[in-house]
Specification:
Layout lengths: L2 H22 L5 H19 L1 H10 L5 H45 L1
Helix pairs in contact: 1-2, 2-3, 3-4
């Protein structure tokens, strides 16, 4: 086993422990926890068995396994950015509603 594989495996285990901690604290939902298990589990498989990544990259027509990893990472980052944007927009709408209600209540009290 190469040193980079050990480093990656330790990092993945750390990340999985953080996801479990957030789940046990009820800070993330079951679906989000499963999502992170799949992501970090895939990273563990890629770290410990590079031939698996090579097999998948060749089977879908991508020449180099590193390219497949980069494509998946970029797509994942775009997805997470989109989810963050949606969550921020929802919080903004809720905050606007609360501020309006407070302003109306204050105006009524005058």
């Amino acid at each position: 086993m190469e040193p980079i594989q050990i480093i990656l495996a330790v990092f993945v285990l750390f990340a999985l422990s953080r996801a479990y901690l957030r789940y046990s604290e009820k800070k993330i939902k079951v679906a989000e926890f499963v999502f992170w298990i799949v992501i970090w589990g895939s990273a563990m498989v890629a770290a410990l068995s590079p031939k698996t990544v090579s097999f998948f990259s060749n089977s879908i027509g991508i020449g180099r396994p590193a390219d497949l990893i980069l494509y998946v990472a970029v797509i994942l980052l775009f997805y997470l950015t989109f989810r963050s944007y949606v969550m921020i927009d929802e919080m903004d709408q809720k905050m606007t509603k609360v501020v309006r209600e407070i302003a109306i209540d204050r105006q009524k009290k005058k």
